[in-house]
């Protein structure tokens, strides 16, 4: 197994692509069919977006470490992330359908919002309970994104591309949404789902030369 190898506990193809970009070899560690990954993502009443995204990321990591143990896999760092779009204190998740995507994009039109991505790495101990003994580290990337003013026709055309689905806030900075975004202050890779500067810093903390 190469030195720079991680288990990537994410169904997001963007995260795998971003790890490839920095040469981090990875193996996917995806949920078992009976795992309830959705319920991890419930927002607590009154929870601030920054607290939410960091809490959910650690829950994802704990679930992934348990998965690693159940499967009896060889030790290597386990990495996961969560991306949340926040308009003020309102959290925008993934749109359930076209109508919801239109509503989210209408809210984002002409406004600045934040994209928060937390990334967490856990290194399971050899044997024993990995959740109890793993060393866990987490970083948070916060970016400001300003959308152009979008008329209904432009929103409808964007939704028709299908790009909003499966993405927090109903857009993908790496795709057609590039034509909707007037300004970014922050981390492009963080907005896309995995902040590479923070990810590399976390891995360096585990002794990697990256
Ligand atoms: C804002 C934005 C989000 N996204 C994506 C990244 C994430 O895949 C998704 C946010 O959902 P997440 O819940 O962070 O991730 P996921 O459900 O896709 O994958 P997993 O939980 O298994 O790791 O939105 C983009 O691709 N581009 C963007 O510009």
UniProtKB/TrEMBL annotation:
This is dTTP/UTP pyrophosphatase. Pfam families: Maf (PF02545). PANTHER family: BIFUNCTIONAL DTTP/UTP PYROPHOSPHATASE/METHYLTRANSFERASE PROTEIN-RELATED, BIFUNCTIONAL DTTP_UTP PYROPHOSPHATASE_METHYLTRANSFERASE PROTEIN-RELATED. It comes from the Bacteria. Nucleoside triphosphate pyrophosphatase that hydrolyzes dTTP and UTP. May have a dual role in cell division arrest and in preventing the incorporation of modified nucleotides into cellular nucleic acids. It is found in: Cytoplasm. The active site is at 82 (proton acceptor).
């Amino acid at each position: 197994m190469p030195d720079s190898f991680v288990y990537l506990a994410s169904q997001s193809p963007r995260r795998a692509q971003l790890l490839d970009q920095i040469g981090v070899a990875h193996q996917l560690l995806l949920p078992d069919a009976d795992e309830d990954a959705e319920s991890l993502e419930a927002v607590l009443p009154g929870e601030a977006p920054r607290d939410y995204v960091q809490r959910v990321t650690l829950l994802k990591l704990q679930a992934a470490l348990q998965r690693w143990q159940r499967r009896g896999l060889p030790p290597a760092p386990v990495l996961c992330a969560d991306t949340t779009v926040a308009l003020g204190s309102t959290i925008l998740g993934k749109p359930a359908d076209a109508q919801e995507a239109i509503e989210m994009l209408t809210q984002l039109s002409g406004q600045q919002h934040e994209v928060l991505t937390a990334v967490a790495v856990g290194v399971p101990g050899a044997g024993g309970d990995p959740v109890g003994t793993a060393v866990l580290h987490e970083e948070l990337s916060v970016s400001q994104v300003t959308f152009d003013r979008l008329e209904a026709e432009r929103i409808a055309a964007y939704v028709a591309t299908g790009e909003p689905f499966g993405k927090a806030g109903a857009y993908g900075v790496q795709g057609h949404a590039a034509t909707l975004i007037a300004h970014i202050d922050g981390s492009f890779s963080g907005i896309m789902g995995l902040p590479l500067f923070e990810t590399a810093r976390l891995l360096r903390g585990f002794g990697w030369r990256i």
